[in-house]
Amino acid sequence: MATARAQALLRKPGQPVHPTFLEVFFDLVFVFALTRMTQRLVEELTSERRILVTEAGQTLILLLATYMVWLVTTLITNLYDPTRPEIQLVTAAAMLGALLMAVAVPEAFEERSLFFALSYVSIHLVQGLFFVPALRGHPAQRRAVRVFVWFSISAVPWVVGALDGDVARAVLWTLAIALDYTGVALRQPTPMLGRQPASEMTIDPEHLSERFRLFFTIALGELILALGSTYSQSAFTAASTVAFVASFATTALLWRIYVHRAGELLPAAIATAREPARLAAVSVPAHVLMLAGIIAVSAGIELVIAQPLGRIDPALVVFMLGGPVLYLGGRAIFEYIVFSRVSPSRWYGIATLVVISPGLRFAPPLVSAIAPAAVLTGVAITDTIRGRGSPDEPPSPPG
Fold it and tell me: Which of 18, 78, 92, 163 is deepest in the core (most CB within 10 A)?
């Protein structure tokens, strides 16, 4: 009887691969979460007491934690039947926890640290407390136990860090998020259970790829939100309008570079890989880098449009050009995952952005908005020329 109940929770062959309405609804929380991270960076950029490396590092930890919640919940709806009331309830609970995390983001390293940590930890522990007994008697229970054990271990530095001082908190939270991602990468090796066998990690590549693309679209949506909101509050001068148009071009180019071939062929690449679950796992750092780049650009755009001809801040150059550098680096990994090679245009784009960045410290902020749009245009044009007149390249994932 227990095995039958567990079997009923699993995703059935032939079920629709497209995300359900609940999954799309779940994703809406992350528009707010990413917006809060952008606002956090903007506030720190305009603060007299900021330390750029520290604030960027803290925001990265918050982004990694937020993305882990999205990733684990996405895997739940990939492995289990999302039409089951139990799975819908688990998803809704994760949605509430993610919303609470997002609320705490601006002060997550200050007075709301415990609130953020408990929200994050509770999501994973509640999921484990549901799946471990619910899957009793089924082989899938072993996977649930492994996941629960790893998140239980990382819960300790999350909570202890929230109760400690600033430096200790940063160290402990870095350790905690490193444990979480290491567990995913190593397939949660656990005493007496070992690690999850690759042969047992059956995923739906079409569904998972759709979820990756949806989250990427959400990140671009947050960028559009920042772009439109900031411009609507500007004086509508010629300079702010040029900055707005250049920033929109950057947004459109980020989408184009992502989707061109590799983004379209990710489902086929995962499906044809020798170990589909391993390839899907490698896709995670690629998307994290691209998301970090988008958030950096979003924060920079808000400041450029607000004061396109004002005093240049070196931190603004770091965000406006460093964001696309992170993005192209993540996109290079993503391309390698799909084709086992990387287009030279990725490296040329990164090199160009790095070389021109020192000179932009002596130009008005408006130039920092135009420069990445110009470089990304060159990357997109190179991609188009490379693919013109030749047959579509099939996916060829490594190993």
Answer: 78
Two structure tokens written together for 19: 């995300």
Asked if residue 189 and residue 45 are part of one domain, the reply reads yes
Instruction: Say yes or no: 77 and 190 in one domain.
Output: yes
**Rg of the chain on CA atoms, in Å:** 22
* Per-residue pLDDT tens over the stretch 243-301: 999 999 999 999 999 998 888 899 999 988 888 888 888 899 999 999 999 999 999 99
The one-letter amino acid code at 36 reads: R
Predicted model pTM: 0.94
Residues 193 and 211 grouped into a single domain: no
Q: How many C-beta atoms lie closer than 10 Å to residue 85's C-beta?
A: 7
Q: Note whether 318 and 187 are same-domain residues.
A: no
Residue 176 included in any domain: yes
67 located within any domain? yes
Could you identify the residue written with the tokens 């931190």? 315
What are the distances in angstroms from CA 237 to CA 199, 310, 365, 372, 374? 60, 13, 14, 21, 22
pLDDT tens for each residue of 315-331: 889 999 999 999 999 99
> Within a domain: residue 397?
no
358 shares a domain with 289: yes
Contacts of 44 (CB under 8 A, 6+ apart): 50, 52, 55
Q: Do 213 and 194 share a domain, yes or no? A: no
SS3 94: helix
Report the Cα 107 to chain-centroid distance in Å.
20
Q: Which domain holds residue 333?
A: 205-387
Residue type for position 253: L
- Cα 324 to Cα 330: distance, rounded to the nearest angstrom: 10
